[in-house]
Design brief:
The chain is an alpha/beta fold. It has 15 helices and 17 strands. The strands form 5 sheets. Strands 1-4-7-8-9-11-14-15 form an 8-stranded parallel barrel, surrounded by 5 helices. A 3-stranded mixed sheet has the order 10-12-13. A two-stranded antiparallel ribbon has the order 2-3. Helix 5 packs parallel to helix 7, helix 7 runs parallel beside helix 11 and helix 13 runs parallel beside helix 14.
């Protein structure tokens, strides 16, 4: 077992519905991954990347309660294992299968826990998971902004979606942990900040800056701020639902993934409306805010930028984000990985997937013809230059990763047995803790 810094990329697998559920936005289809999945895995190897954010398409894999079609997952995960690429398994990326409806459905959390367990049982060599991707953004875009899935716009709908999404994530962690006791969970969550444009905007900005933490507060069992507690209860969360999160978190097995894009910072007007501010604080400052709150190891789990007219915009952004990662690390924060997302260009993210136009967004390491972009060449060089440097530094967390080829080794099983005993100890502590 060799401690590794997790240089990663991902296959974009967003799949929300739009137009009141009539249209499924399947990024794997739009980016032609179903057609070129073997070539895509070749490209991951070509870059020297050993960790891939990846998951089966939930809407075609999960057919009903206890009913699954693993055909595509069997092909792709078998091939990842053969290549010794460790997947960070993304089980729910902004969408649900049609039979479940949307994130207002109270049956979703428990059923999703069953789905996560079934996946872990079928692929027991998988160790790394992001059960639900960007929980806050999923709830916000679906039930506060009215863009996807349920397409609702209100605080009660948002709180309902959020509590169901985070509970699903927690139950999935428990279910996976019963199968794979040494599983590690990497939350990929958008790291946001809201800047007041004028004095009258201070109050709404403060509320938004408190609300941005809700998904992780609940996921990690952290008591929310008093104003947010009232906000949750005023909008439909019960005391019993709130206390579920305090009692059932799995933070001891978590890595806090922070996603950062230029669009993550916002200017807030006096009326509470917002507009993009562009990069003001940057990844370093905002990630320190999140780490100071949760005190967990960190991974930079998403970033990208369009390759612009000069051809070097994305390359310069990669350099800037990497400099921020090193600054966070040198400040003493245990940062364990970095991700350029995604492997290929994406489609229609310029409208946040709200419009089904087929617009190609040139922000991948490769274009959709699978030709490398300048940022892909730059990332390959960055990985080559830094791979052997980072693990030698004591400040970098030594993540106990079991690579696919080692999953059947005796030492790996011993490690799982140790993790299972630690889980039992943690469960006892949590059960006896005051709620």
């Amino acid at each position: 077992m060799i401690p590794q810094f997790l240089f990663a990329t991902g296959i974009e697998n967003s799949n929300p519905t739009i137009q009141n559920g009539r249209v499924r936005v399947d990024e794997m289809a739009k980016c032609r991954h179903y057609e070129f999945w073997q070539k895509d895995f070749d490209l991951v190897e070509e870059l020297g990347i050993r960790f891939l954010r990846y998951g089966p398409p939930i809407h075609t894999t999960w057919l009903g309660p206890g009913r699954y079609d693993w055909t595509f997952a069997d092909l792709t995960f078998r091939d990842l294992g053969r290549r010794n690429i460790a997947p960070i398994v993304d089980l729910c990326h902004f969408g649900l299968p049609d039979w479940l409806g949307n994130f207002q459905n109270p049956d979703f959390p428990a059923l999703f826990g069953d789905y996560a367990r079934a996946f872990a049982e079928r692929f027991p060599w998988v160790q790394l998971y992001t059960p639900v991707n960007e929980m806050f953004i999923c709830a916000q875009f679906s039930a506060l902004y009215g863009w996807w899935n349920e397409q609702l716009s209100g605080d009660q709908a948002f709180v309902t979606a959020l509590k169901h999404i985070v509970k699903a994530n927690v139950l999935a962690m428990h279910a996976i942990g019963e199968v794979r006791p040494d599983a590690l969970f990497i939350q990929s969550e958008s790291s946001e900040y809201f800047h007041a444009e004028n004095p009258q905007a201070i109050k709404p900005a403060e509320l938004m800056n408190a609300r941005r933490f809700l998904s992780l507060d609940l996921n990690y069992g952290r008591r929310v701020d008093s104003e947010m507690y009232e906000y949750l209860l005023d909008n439909g969360m019960t005391r019993e639902e709130y206390h579920f999160f305090l009692r059932n978190h799995r933070r001891h097995q978590c890595i806090m993934g922070n996603d950062y894009y230029k669009t993550n910072e916002h200017r807030v007007r006096a009326d509470g409306s917002t507009t993009a501010s562009g990069e003001v604080f940057g990844y370093h400052v905002i990630t320190r805010q999140y780490h100071d709150r949760y005190h967990l190891p960190v991974m930079h789990t998403e970033t990208n930028l369009w390759q612009g007219p000069c051809g070097d915009e994305a390359v310069n952004w990669l350099w800037k984000e990497w400099a921020n990662v090193l600054r966070v690390r040198n400040d003493g924060v245990p940062i364990v990985g970095f991700t350029w997302y995604s492997l290929t260009d994406q489609v229609d993210w310029d409208s946040a997937l709200r419009e089904n136009r087929g617009t190609v967004n040139p922000l991948g390491l490769y274009d959709l013809d699978r030709k490398i972009r300048p940022v892909g060449a730059a990332y390959k060089q960055l990985i080559h230059d830094w791979r052997q440097v980072l693990p030698a530094q004591s400040v970098c967390l030594q993540v106990p990763i079991v690579m696919p080829h080692d999953a059947s080794q005796e030492w790996a099983q011993q490690k799982q047995d140790q993790a299972e005993a630690q889980q039992q100890d943690q469960t006892t502590v949590a059960a006896n803790a005051p709620s």
